[in-house]
From TrEMBL, chains A, B:
Protein residues bound to NADP(+): L13, G14, L15, G16, N17, V18, G19, S20, R49, R50, R55, K107, G309
Protein known as: Homoserine dehydrogenase
EC primary class: oxidoreductase
Catalytic site positions: K207
Purpose of the protein: Catalyzes the conversion of L-aspartate-beta-semialdehyde (L-Asa) to L-homoserine (L-Hse), the third step in the biosynthesis of threonine and methionine from aspartate.
Family affiliation: Belongs to the homoserine dehydrogenase family.
Cofactor: a metal cation
Lineage start: Bacteria, Bacillati, Actinomycetota, Actinomycetes, Mycobacteriales
Binding site for L-homoserine: E192
Gene3D superfamilies: 3.30.70.260, Dihydrodipicolinate Reductase, domain 2, NAD(P)-binding Rossmann-like Domain
Binding-site residues, NADPH: K107
Keyword NADP among UniProt keywords: yes
Organism: Mycolicibacterium hassiacum (strain DSM 44199 / CIP 105218 / JCM 12690 / 3849)
GO MF assignments: homoserine dehydrogenase activity; metal ion binding; NADP binding
Gene that specifies this protein: hom
């Protein structure tokens, strides 16, 4: 290993927050990176939408001809940081077909197109790394694919979207409504101009698909992930959650399920959930991410850190770049796609969880009995009931009734909610939120 | 990849808690492991001190001839779980020289003999993995050597010894003295009959040496690690810590230091420290482990989980076994020892930290001035002072004075303590404990 080794050529696609940091690290840490890899990294070019002189890098490195850049003979590793699905997909496929190793942070792409890309990497005998696609700087892909390769993962549950966690943390700590918390997040740069991908859970669902795929050795795409966003969570829900010793978090949950007759399946789902304050994920606030992994032998592990941002994401990207470069120098490849288990995906209707149901009811005798009967009729067992008077000047005066159930399937709960809504004594069912992190 | 591949032969050395779990997983997860590796694992033999029929495994697998077992032609991977340094060292060297890949959980060995073993692995072009040597099931070696390979690690601080964490957690929650907490830990199986390696910090120091070596690309051995155990921590220290908003934890700290003239060095040290209750490590209780890694781009990451025990440690071992086996099947090797940076080790005297000093003083005017003068004379700045009366029936009546300093070097503090002890008004200096996790 020495500096006389033939350099490893790198092309970076995209020069946003992450791309700029990657370019900076390749430059400023050149000596260290060369020592760790056994050959120097050489930045061959940066693909951008429009070439201009004010991008903070030598303009001769810039090109808007992505296809040409990724096909250059002196490029060994392509770092894709353009997002979203296209034109990233095409660029990565071209790179793989040309025998380049690829590092990407593109969760949207990796959650829909993983099979196609994995096959192209396999055919070319090159690496396709994507640690930065999930939870930014926090190592989760490598621990799941390598450190836990000899164990049986049973569950992965995480807070993997910083924007929604920032909004929910603000609602929890200030009592703000969703709209106000979103406005604050936007003003501070924690939410994008169009926050749909974050607040509706699409971003978290993409990450859930990736996590479920590698945790359970089964190909899971974003379409397989059940998804609810946070836009309907109210200040009243947070108040009720607190009274129940909980907070509310948007969780990505990947679970290995075993039926009574021993058949295994996979569930991947994203939704806001009540989480007990004693659960480790309850304390993950603001723009931080955390992933809890449960495995048969390892027990419960937690990984915590910054889930987004230019520098943290660049750290994960550069870890992959160094590994891909080492493999180029020393021979060998990182782990390939592992999809041998081919477990079926469980529909959300089959998934047993606990539920919190908040409804507005008439404030008169017999209401609780009527409500409880509907739960009982569908074998949904009630764990806790809370009733509070509401005085909003309306007529007739109503009360807020909160019911927390034991574990029930989504199908049974959905039927119960439909029946509740048609009861005379129930004015409205305002919230149905799952509860996670408790065992009963 | 299919089951027709030539099997990968495995020899397991040691059949204690971890070895038994490894053997169980190789057997019970055989199908999954074969699919992940691309070839089946085949257990060729188990090295034990005495062969006997009551070990829960087929007796024909057992042998007390370790050297013969690790040299067998049909063994590809040797899993060393015997500890301590010898005979493990000799067995591993033989295995490496015979071209076997080696997986070990032996922190004592890896912290004294890493260079010798790394060279043997290098010469034979085989893998030497040791994820299980630090923090049991928690992936820390792989994240540091791979995920953070493109970043600059500045600090690793962890609770890496479950026995001492159990004892300190018990002292904190029950107010027990060290002796009682140790006795309870022993009765419950959390402390060994001879707890010296744990309570005197030798185990944590071995892990600190390993962590510092990989984090800073510098060879650090156990002898380079400054070490203090927990045997002198008192119930009074915990009471004072709590009054200061802290708890006390045995920390392993690895730090990259940069001097005023830009020279870098490494500090590796183990001692009990006051940790603010708001710090993530403060909440790590009982037999759990956690490692906080700080890196320039990634920011602060935390890894949390079970740091010991048969099954969790076996999970880490099996992850390494699968990776070593994959490399055998597909070609390639894991990361080699990286020691290019060759940073010097800073002596403890140069390390600036904050200090908590507890002393018994005469209860009369002028005491604080005299004490404060000694701190000031050595440029040790005082952040906080607390005085409590002590009524233990002794004469003359004394008081307990607790001083918390701003950052000072160990050398300056040591001189101060010496001077304090010789003051007339100071009856005794009872505790000097560092404080970590605060910035001032």
């Amino acid at each position: 290993m020495n500096g006389d080794q033939k350099p490893i050529g790198v092309a970076v696609l995209g020069l946003g927050n992450v791309g700029s940091e990657v370019v900076r690290i390749i430059d400023e840490s050149a000596t260290d990176l060369a020592a760790r890899i056994g050959a120097p990294l050489q930045l061959r070019g940066i693909g951008v939408r429009r070439v201009s002189a004010d991008r903070g890098v030598p303009v001769e490195l810039l090109t808007d001809n992505i296809e040409e850049l990724v096909s250059r003979d002196d490029v060994d590793i392509v770092v894709e940081l353009m997002g979203p699905v296209e034109p990233a997909r095409k660029a990565i496929l071209t790179a793989l077909e040309q025998g380049k190793s690829v590092v990407t942070a593109n969760k949207a792409l990796m959650s829909v197109s993983t099979g196609e890309l994995a096959q192209a990497a396999e055919a070319a005998h090159v690496d396709l790394y994507f640690e930065a696609a999930v939870a930014g700087a926090i190592p989760v892909i490598r621990p799941l694919t390598q450190s836990l390769a000899g164990d049986t993962v049973t569950r992965v549950a995480g807070i993997v979207n910083g924007t929604t966690n920032y909004i929910l943390s603000a609602m929890d700590s200030t009592g703000a409504d969703y709209g106000d918390a979103l406005a604050e997040a936007s003003a501070l740069g924690y939410a994008e101009a169009d926050p749909t991908a974050d607040v509706e859970g699409y971003d978290a669902a993409a990450k859930a698909a990736i996590l479920a795929s590698i945790a359970f050795h089964t190909r899971v795409t974003a379409d397989d992930v059940y998804r609810e966003g946070i836009t309907k969570v109210t200040a009243a829900d947070f108040a009720s959650a607190r009274a129940l010793g909980c907070t509310i978090k948007l969780l990505a949950i990947c679970e290995r399920l075993t039926s009574d007759d021993g058949h295994q399946s996979v569930s991947a789902r994203v939704y806001p959930a009540l989480v007990p304050l004693t659960h480790p994920l309850a304390a993950v606030n603001g723009a931080f991410n955390a992933v809890v992994v449960e495995a048969e032998a390892a027990g419960r592990l937690m990984f915590y850190g910054q889930g987004a941002g230019g520098a943290p994401t660049a750290s994960a990207v550069m870890g992959d770049v160094v590994m891909a470069a080492r493999n180029r120098v020393q021979g060998g490849r990182g782990p390939r796609e592992s999809k041998y288990a081919k477990l079926p995906i469980s529909p959300i209707g089959d998934i047993p969880t606990r539920y919190y149901v908040s409804m507005r009811v008439a404030d008169r005798p017999g209401v609780l009995a009527a409500v409880a009967t509907e739960f009982g009729n569908r074998s949904v067992s009630i764990a806790e009931v809370r009733q509070e008077g509401i005085d909003d000047g309306g007529e007739p005066r109503g009360a807020r009734l909160v019911v927390v159930t034991h574990k029930a399937t989504d199908a049974a709960l959905s039927e119960t909610v439909k029946a509740l809504a048609s009861l005379d004594v129930v004015q409205s069912v305002d919230s149905v939120i799952r509860m996670e992190g408790t065992s009963e």
